[in-house]
Amino acid sequence: MGEANSEEFCHCQGCLGKYTLLRDEENPRLAMFERRLPCFGCGIGWSSFLLGFVCPLIWYYATTLYCCKYYNRDPRERPGLAASAIAAVIFTAATIVTLSTILIIWAYK
């Protein structure tokens, strides 16, 4: 158990089969996950979600990114962008209900 093929190890003279490769030669897109996400490592989606509590318009920006499939560039962004989109929908519904209630109360005065 735990024995690996010799194909999974580096073949250079310095390593002599001791170390595994970090990058997948067959799928170079996997190497892009070695870099950090923008916005202090949280990513645009989660940063937008958190900043949206201060300024809800940021949720709508993240929702636009989610609908335009920005997460195809980096799939790690998808959960944060989806959370921002859900927050934007909830905020919109709460705003509509609040404004409707205010208008109904104002109309009956």
Automatic annotation (TrEMBL):
Spans through the membrane: 37-61, 81-108
This protein's UniProt keywords: Membrane, Transmembrane, Transmembrane helix
Domain of life according to the entry: Eukaryota
UniProt xrefs under PANTHER family: 60S RIBOSOMAL L18A-LIKE PROTEIN
Protein name per its UniProtKB record: Ribosomal protein L18ae family
Organism encoding this protein: Brachypodium distachyon
Gene name in the database record: LOC100823552
